[in-house]
Specification:
This protein is mostly beta strands. The protein is built from four helices and 13 strands.
């Protein structure tokens, strides 16, 4: 997984009034928990843009005052009207404890069913994987070259060493659907 460096400032003020004041200064209130940590801090909104608006799953090298740790983004809260980030929760990760992370899927190859006139449909964009964070790939590459007309690839067909998928085993990742043209041929 790719890493992202982020620096925060510890905060001592809490509540709606303090959060509103932070947001007016273009700061985002944040929490980090897990691995015996429980810390509140703020980060600059401009610093987290590349962390939030990316298709990749990133490990965050977080520095808050004297605290240095690796973390993942656990939850994001957005304003319902203007879409600005209101709050971020981070989960500290350890090389010994497994965590659950969503990893993007990338389909590779030209499916046999597409050559026969079908349409390739990607039903899932991300898979939830459980494992040690060092075992997570940047993307899950799924080869669809052998996928025939009317066939599908399920979660149970995707195998990555060191990871267990949390999604239902029979959930469809990608399939080739028959089109009117392929049915007539």
């Amino acid at each position: 997984m790719k890493e992202f460096a982020l620096a925060g400032t510890p905060r001592s003020e809490y509540g709606k009034k303090a959060a509103k004041a932070f947001r007016a200064e273009e700061l985002i209130p944040c929490n980090i928990y897990g691995c015996g940590l429980n810390c509140t801090f703020t980060v600059k909104a401009a610093d987290v843009r590349k962390l939030i608006y990316t298709p990749d799953t990133l490990i965050v090298d977080l520095t808050v005052g004297e605290l240095k740790t690796k973390a993942i983004v656990k939850e994001l809260q957005f304003h319902p009207m203007d879409g600005k980030v209101l709050h971020i929760d981070f989960l500290a990760v350890d090389e010994k404890k497994p965590v659950v992370v969503e990893i993007p899927i990338q389909l590779n190859g030209l499916a046999e069913g597409v050559k026969a006139g079908g349409k390739l449909v990607q039903a899932m964009r991300k898979l939830k994987a459980c494992g040690i964070y060092t075992a997570f790939p940047d993307r899950i590459n799924v080869d669809v070259t052998e996928l025939g007309l009317g066939k599908k690839i399920a979660v149970e067909d995707v195998k990555i060493e060191g990871l267990k998928f949390v999604n239902p085993a029979d959930a469809c990742v990608a399939e080739v659907k028959a089109t009117r043209q392929s049915k007539q041929a």
